[in-house]
């Protein structure tokens, strides 16, 4: 999926700057001291591995809330609220029922995280090199937006089959399948490969704006915190302080992500649970669903999703940056505070 290590290292030869080992005097401040060179093949693979952990683990942990959100989108009268939903599902299906769709969630979002974070770092470097250092610095926000959109375009192709299975397992009135593999086989037998990707366009419509907001807002928020709220450059703070900034900026970005992507999220849930009429295209089905939902209907389930995505995004950035710190790499984003005269 990523360019080979040999290709990247040849392309970037002479442009890489190794990290300087941390000084013994810098006991509190965290200074990156990894043997992994920034923007090398190993760097992108390391970021991709961090993305697997960040997205796979957090989405799996949020499965109960996601399951309720999907069911409420498909049938808005099913539960009176989030707590009512938890109570009814736990009573009728047990704790296991709350994690319905957990397997495809873990697999799908691990793959998505690999593509999202790995390719984001890759495209950010690639586009910055294409436009030059001066333009990249001047139009940083545009760089964040374009790199994240490109990364998500690829990541969603990796996610889509698992998302289709997850939604079917979570929203079917009767158990859709008894196993992960059985569910995949059932979709393939009934709809062929198109069954795994009929929700790809709506997924792009949901995830690309979501990810653009997630990465750009995060990067700008981290930069603003170090520049306007904290008194010292990022490098003068320890790991704990830097990771606290990471989580705070991530949660803030997540709130905006949830709002921007929610209508498309509702549509994805409906598309994977509503059968096409004979001869009806996916686009026509989407239009029909949107007409049935109306403006208010596309916002069903927004409150639990804001809580879910805010927490999810904060934790994802925290796990991702923690992984980078553990490998000696710097945390993401942040401009040094200007020196006072």
UniProtKB/TrEMBL annotation:
GO biological process, one term: copper ion transmembrane transport
Chief location of this protein within or outside the cell: mitochondrion
Alphabetized Gene3D superfamilies for the sequence: Mitochondrial carrier domain
Solcar repeats by residue range: 42-126, 139-224, 241-326
Record GO cellular component, one term: mitochondrial inner membrane
SUPFAM superfamilies linked: Mitochondrial carrier
Topology class, membrane: Multi-pass membrane protein
Entry keywords, A to Z: Membrane, Mitochondrion, Mitochondrion inner membrane, Repeat, Transmembrane, Transmembrane helix, Transport
GO MF term set: phosphate transmembrane transporter activity
Subcellular location: Mitochondrion inner membrane
Database matches in Pfam families: Mito_carr
Record's keyword annotation contains Mitochondrion: yes
Family the UniProt entry places it in: Belongs to the mitochondrial carrier (TC 2.A.29) family.
Described function: Transport of phosphate groups from the cytosol to the mitochondrial matrix.
Name listed for the protein in its UniProt record: Cu/Pi carrier
Organism classification: Eukaryota, Fungi, Fungi incertae sedis, Zoopagomycota, Kickxellomycotina
